[in-house]
Specification:
By secondary structure, the chain is α+β, with helices and mostly antiparallel strands. The protein has a single domain (3-270), classed as Double-stranded beta-helix (4-Layer Sandwich), CATH 3.60.130.10. It is 23% helix and 26% strand. It has helices at 25-38, 50-60, 127-132, 136-143, 152-162, 212-226, and strands at 3-6, 13-16, 40-43, 81-84, 107-114, 122-126, 146-149, 169-170, 173-174, 181-184, 186-188, 195-197, 204-207, 232-235, 242-246, 250-254, 264-270. The strands form five sheets. It has a seven-stranded mixed β-sheet with strand order 1-2-3-15-5-17-4, covered by helices on one side. A three-stranded antiparallel β-sheet has the order 14-6-16. Strand 11 and strand 12 (195-197) form a beta hairpin. The longest helix is centred in the C-terminal third of the chain and has 15 residues, at 212-226. It comes from Paractinoplanes durhamensis. Residues 4-269 form the TauD/TfdA-like domain. Its cofactor is Fe(2+). Keywords: Dioxygenase, Iron, Metal-binding, Oxidoreductase.
Length: 280
Amino acid sequence: MKELEPLGPHFGAIVHGVDLAGASDAVLADVRAALVDRKVLFFRDQLLDDDGQVALGRRIGELTASHPVVGGVDAAHPEVYALDSADNGFADVWHTDVTFMKRPPLGSILRAVVLPPSGGDTQWADAQLAYESLSAPVRRLADQLTAVHDGNREFGYYLAQRRGGKGNEWDGEVVTQLTPVEHPVVRVHPETGRPGIFVNPGFTSHIVGVSEFESRGILDLLYAHLTKPEHIVRHRWRPGDVAMWDNRSTSHYANRDYGDQRRVMHRITLRGDVPVGPAA
């Protein structure tokens, strides 16, 4: 890569001088390494369409379906998930993509398609830095905990009513129901060994083995800490922008501050692994 412009001491970077559509294998290997290190990368002035985005994803990892429940943007691109504000395609809650499945995505690649005149920024939180900046007693508590992630609150109605109870194939099985899954509250990154907070307001329903009151208190503490300003980078989109992020070490939030203007983003996701906690 020609130049990596850090957005903070540990988190986020703008990558200059890389044409994602024509990048060599060596350059994409550098991008992949930078993704793990910086967690979220931004590329300006890219000339990608849906075909190019899918081809790029296949060179970086193994693509999943667009989403366990939501269909692809069209029949030719079942891997592309369209987030269209004209069809309730919002993401204005802190979340990590698809944690309600046993094997959440490794990462995501997001492309700006239609942007409002202003607003619609996206923010990312560094889950590893957030974990490391917790006090030692709270880290020890979090290390021991398991949480339930439930996609029904966000996508249960969509699966039942708009897809007739039949979603996409995910990990070799067609999704017909969104059975809640358990993941460690602290996830150890499979490539770096660094632990990070792995709960999110979008899909985490509760902590296992504690009271409802205790669960709410623990989760609220972790959410507030995760989204402290010093753990966050914010991206102001412009045409031609592409973002990549490591889904195993981040959460994100798309600002819904553009009124009735339209915002369309196309996302693909890379197949991940089963989250593992410190106890393992």
